[in-house]
Amino acid sequence: MSRNTSRSSVSLRQVFPSAQIVGADDIHCVRCASTVERCDGDWIYAAGVDCQSDLARDTIDAINLGAKAILTEQFLPSSVPQCIVPDVREAYAQLCQAVAGKPTDRMLTIAVVGTHGKTTASLMVASMMKRIGKRVAYYTSLGASDGNQSGLEASHNADPNQLSQWLKASADNESPAAVIELSDEMLRSHATSGMEFDVVLFTGLRKSQRLDTLQARGVENAMHRIVGQLKGHGIVVYNADDARLNRWIERHQPHAISYGLDAVADVRGRRLCSLPGEQSMMISAGTCVMPITSLILGDHNARHMLGAAAVGYAFGLELFEIVQGIERLQRIPGRMQRVQGADRCTVYIDNSDQADRLAVAMHALSKHGAPITCVAEIPDAATAEQLAAFGRVLERSASRVILTQSRYSTQLGQKLAWQVLDGCEHPASIQIVPNREAAIELAIRSSRAGDQVLLAGWGAERWTNCQTKLVKHDAEIASTILSTLPTKSAEMAEIMDSPKLRIFGAR
Fold first, then answer.
1. Is residue 66 scored above 90 in pLDDT?
2. Tell me, what's the pLDDT at 217?
3. Domains with residue ranges and CATH for the chain
4. Could you read off the pLDDT of 24-34 as tens digits, one per residue?
5. Helix, strand, coil % (nearest 5) of the chain?
6. Distance from chain centroid for Cα 419
7. Which residues pair with 195 in a beta bridge?
8. Nearest of 181, 178, 136, 138 to residue 157 by alpha carbon
9. Rg (CA), the chain
10. Who's near 254: CB < 8 A, 6+ residues apart?
11. pTM of this prediction?
């Protein structure tokens, strides 16, 4: 339900000039809803937005709760006026934006789209823009901010009302810019219809483990629709290292700026060095060149930095301002996040819950040459083939693998673990510890000096211990264990203080 505090009335005749209005010359409203709830003031009910609902029953219930009109795709037997549109989901989203006062007209709006890396790229763009505008609104799977308050709840399947009210609050707080991560669900549901964007950032169309051919085609169609929502001066920023995305750009020929780490691009990065816990590269944009250093590891994250730099370049910002803004963000929860603690081993947390994502995370750590111990959560909603692929990546990339699961019963978890082992040439080398907390403790306490430990599968999300039913978090568990480990200096002191064998030679 919309909670718009503005009382300005919106004319449906103006919003939908080609729609058929039955029962009235025009319909005016100050609120709209797609669920059967009681609203104050003149509100209309969008019938059929939820495909699983009972259309006739919900329409009657909405009228009984005070709905003044109905927004629908088909004529319905009702006592109130109706506005008949070709696509009710798209029309509902447009109406939500109109009721909110078209907030995207009052600030710069950047949409981030792609099959991978949307959250990280969104936060890097927001960090870069904040260096210039002091306050920036963002909406990502890790949370949201309206420019005034951070830590707001965000949904990967946000409905048009949620998005319109977040945008309105951001505009009312005088945020100069808003960055929004568009999930596949939001694209398919037309939740962003009615918005207009200054920049659309495409992070990539790399094949995803969970994206079949039909879904991938749907994402591409949605991308074409999003490009159509660019403002007159709007521009596309895209990852030139992604071959499939390059082909899409060539087909549709939008006004675009490219970025890349390997391909020739308008904004290009060149790797300088990668150290444990740090990486640096040289960024070139136009005639300017400048180094950038980040604690966020991996080539995939380096490309997200370049994407944020390309957005700043599109806005005409100076390169030193862009780099300073991106470098402000040195930690993203659950995305190659380093856990601070003892210096004996280095612990990272990543949300890599698919074979391809796990391979990217492993590649980022393998550059340092140190052994990698991976505590891997069995993937959720994966086929037997996908689980086997997950096992192959684990065996080939990690020095030691501890397989665990926190989502399933013991019996089902055991079956899925066997399917993971089917992808391994030497399954006996894989340790299976169903209790994730015990698996994390085993990995850290048995590590040697200089080892790397990757806790994969949950990222910043919390999970439930199957034995105690307590809600746990990888970062909290790892920090607690690391705090009990002796430091290198303490270990050396213990060695020095240990009894020594003395051999006395004969006179």
1. no
2. 66
3. 10-99 (3.40.1390.10), 103-327 (3.40.1190.10), 337-485 (3.90.190.20)
4. 999 998 888 88
5. 35, 25, 40
6. 28
7. none
8. 181
9. 26
10. 227, 230, 235, 236
11. 0.86
